[in-house]
Amino acid sequence: MQNILICGGGNLGHVVAAWLSLQDGCAVSVLTRNPERWASALQLTLPDTSARRAPLRSVTAQPAEAVPEADIVLLCLPGFALKPAMQQIAPYLSQGTKVGSVVSSTGFFQFADEVLPAHTPLFGFQRVPFIARTTTYGHSAALLGFKSSLAVATENIDAAEDFCKQLSAWFGVEVALLKSRWEAALTNSNPLLHPARLYSLWSAWDGEPADNVPGFYTDWTDEASTLLLAMDTEFQQLTQALHVRPGAIPPLTQYYESPDAAALTRKIRSIPAFQAIPAPMLQTPRGYIPDFAHRYFTEDFPYGLRFAVQQAQRLNLPIPTMQRVYDWGMKMINDTSA
Fold first, then answer.
1. 70 Cβ contact list (under 8 Å, min separation 6)
2. Which residues, listed in sequence order, are joined to residue 136 by a DSSP beta bridge?
3. pTM of the full predicted structure?
4. In whole angstroms, how far apart are CA 35 and each of 2, 39, 62, 74, 86?
5. How far is CA 273 from CA 20, 101, 142, in A?
6. pLDDT at residue 147 in the model
7. Which residue, 212, 337, 199, is CA-closest to 283?
8. Integer Cα distance of 152 and 100 in angstroms
9. Cβ distance 259 to 267 under 8 Å?
10. Cβ–Cβ contacts within 10 Å for residue 161, how many?
11. pLDDT the model gives residue 337
């Protein structure tokens, strides 16, 4: 039996905890700031609308209670929460406990270097394993979609291939072993996808409220696709400069099977799991305005796109499109938080 500790009570924390609880050989605990709001079992609704009851071993806010017994600590947290969470768990980690993150492009490996004990076994997913939504906090969640395959980077893990096979059994899809941290730490998923769409929506915003809220994906535009593909071209040049294996992070035209902007727009608009997601906006008495404090801003600019921009700057690699989008997003965040 593997004791797995999930850190985080967001959408992915709920769904990953419930899903792993249902797998053979897994006993799942949750470390959260609000344990009193959690039931002893989660109800997980699957894409076919069936529901399963997923028991939890324990739910606690105290790392000293849960971390020492954990064989695996899996961080299901946004980028801004990763480093503080690692600082919390670091004093209680047992030798050999694996620490991982459901997504690595928000600074996981960089923060692990700074905070965790040397030689801590690490693993980080290239992309999140599920499309997830909480329905009732601490009680129920919906697994809206599976990924067709997953990939993970590891460091300091013996028998890494066997570990990937174990992850494959638990997550129900093939989990490929990546060759370096950069193949997981840099991604052209959300850190490019969300900023491109946000920039296309509001870079020319005049401050006037809108009458309605567009679908973030269902109303996706060719302008957003053109910008996203331009950013991805620069991103691919960065991966080459970092000597990432060709194809390890496939171009978006390949990933979405879309050879041009128009095809990419059609593809993104048609993805079933994206249908109900609105653009991040706030309602005011006069109408709807952009929500610059939404996680698409506060996560994907300073804890996503930032790391690609920093590596390009370190290598003196020109990335005019990514830099323009990044600078705009950071300005919007900073202006509205001042």
1. 3, 4, 5, 29, 94, 97
2. 140
3. 0.77
4. 22, 9, 9, 17, 19
5. 21, 22, 11
6. 87
7. 212
8. 10
9. no
10. 9
11. 64
Q: Which two tokens stand for residue 140?
A: 């129920």
What tokens appear for 216 in the block?
């973030």
Asked if 161 and 221 count as a contact pair (C-beta separation under 8 A), the reply is no
Q: Which helix (H) or strand (E) element contains residue 52? A: strand 51-55
Query: How far, in Å, are 14, 71, 103, 290 from residue 1 at the CA level?
Result: 21, 9, 24, 47
Q: How far is CA 268 from CA 48, 125, 252, 332, in A?
A: 21, 22, 11, 25
Q: What is the rounded CA–CA span in Å between residue 26 and residue 47? A: 22
Q: Are 200 and 321 in contact (CB under 8 A)?
A: no
The two tokens of residue 120 are 């801590």
Choose among 221, 239, 243: nearest CA to 231. 239
Please list, residue by residue across 301-329, b when 16 or more beta carbons sit within 10 angstroms of its beta carbon and e when fewer do: bbbbbbbbbebbeeeeeebebbbebbebb
Per the CB < 8 A criterion, the answer to whether 192 and 235 are in contact is: yes
Tokens 């209680």, residue? 92
Assigned token pair, 263: 């095809």
Alpha carbon distances (Å) from 204 to 19, 32, 241, 299: 42, 39, 33, 22
- Rounded to whole angstroms, the Cα distance separating 317 from 187 reads 17
Q: Which two tokens stand for residue 298?
A: 């506060």
Residue 118: Cβ within 10 Å count: 6
**Encoded tokens for 78:** 């946004």
Question: Across the 338 residues of the chain, what is the mean pLDDT of every consecutive 10-residue run?
Answer: 95 96 96 96 94 96 96 95 96 96 92 95 93 94 90 95 96 93 90 97 96 96 98 97 90 96 97 90 96 94 93 96 98 81
Output the six-digit token pair for 106.
């928000």
